[in-house]
Amino acid sequence: MIYPNLALTLAYLLDLILGDPRGWPHPVKIMGRGIGRAEKLLWHGGKGDRWWGLVLWLLIVLPAYFIPWWLIQMVYNYSSLGAIMVSIILIYWCLSVKGLAVEAGRVRQALEGGDLEKAKGYLALIVGRDPKRLEQEEIIRATVETVAENITDGIISPLFYAFIGGAPLAMAYKAVNTLDSMVGYKNEKYRYFGYFSAKADDIFNYIPARLSVFFIYLACLVLRKNPLSALITAIQDGKKHPSPNAGLPEAAVAGALGLRLGGPNFYQGILVEKPYLGRHNNTPTVNNIREVIKIMHTAALLAVIAACLINLWL
Q: What is the per-residue pLDDT across 272-311, written as a single tens digit (0 to 9) for each?
């Protein structure tokens, strides 16, 4: 089992070193352009869009799996080492450890510098809500929430699918997640067209979201950040969230940091009431962003170590 371990470990290290440099080619950007073009052809604006949404999902997800699979097999015919290298690059493209840390760190640095408008600008790059209405405490909450939620989407889920199905399944997961982020909204336009994308994302993230709570708990043990509170809050409050998955890591982080996350927010000018997550209501500080980044990094490392140990055991 040395080859899967090598691919996972080196992909993780590559992400820590390179992150997601702006301007570099990335499969997710290609997926996004493909989704945008296919949407223009398939969206009709009626109940029948539920089936057209399924067509869109198949058009994006199946190639996201089979093209990497074909590429790895083709390269393997010439070089097993070359196939491993291709797998490493593909899995690296699925991870967002450094990217999350960098984007959240920019918000933190802007707040530490007293530049609220710059912080809002950086925040707008990583959240769907309207940052113009937010004050400093709300900006901190929003940053902590998005890092917590993306521990699942950007780290644990890609690692989980790379672990059970290699780079092709990890890439398929990224396609599922990208579809949800683009058409999975529960608004009038995408209520039918995005139905299947939203449900598929819920299914794909179901196990990883619960694994995220476990690794956040372990990270809190390592960092001495209230692991029991993280676990209890995830169990008690995680199910309050409209998503069956997103609330779990958010609630765990809320418990670890003694914060209350969630609540009402504006999305594209529309007020959306979300439940509060967290049993405590300490005033958020800029240091909370630093703390959630540490939790995220530690959880990612522990997940990679766990995957490698299980591979060796199997």
A: 677 889 988 888 999 999 999 999 999 999 999 999 999 8
Please count the residues of the chain.
314
Tell me the C-alpha distance between 101 and 255, whole Å.
20
Q: How far apart are CA 232 and CA 251, in angstroms?
A: 9
Q: Please give the Cα distance from 56 to 267 (Å, whole number).
A: 25
3-class secondary structure per residue, 32-67: HHHHHHHHHHHCCCCCCHHHHHHHHHHHHHHHHHHH
C-alpha closest to that of 159 among 16, 11, 3:
11
Q: What is the pTM of this model?
A: 0.94
Contact between 96 and 147 (Cβ < 8 Å): no
Rounded CA-CA distance 7/9 in Å is: 6
Domains of the chain, by residue range, sit at 2-313
| % of the chain residues with pLDDT over 90 | 72
Sign of CA dihedral 312, 173, 266, 111: positive
pLDDT in tens, 93-105: 999 999 999 999 9
Which residue blocks in the chain are alpha helix, DSSP H?
Answer: 2-18, 27-42, 49-76, 80-94, 97-112, 116-124, 136-151, 157-183, 195-223, 227-237, 247-257, 286-313
Q: Judge whether residue 239 has pLDDT over 50.
A: yes
String of b and e for 180-196 (b: at least 16 CB within 10 Å)?
A: bbbbbbeeeebebbbbb
240's tokens? 């309050």
Helix (H) or strand (E) holding 262: strand 261-262
Binned at pLDDT 50, 70 and 90, residue 134 comes out as confident
Tracing tokens 């058409």 back to the chain, one arrives at: 183
* Those residues with Cβ within 8 angstroms of residue 115's Cβ, 6 or more apart along the chain or in another chain: none
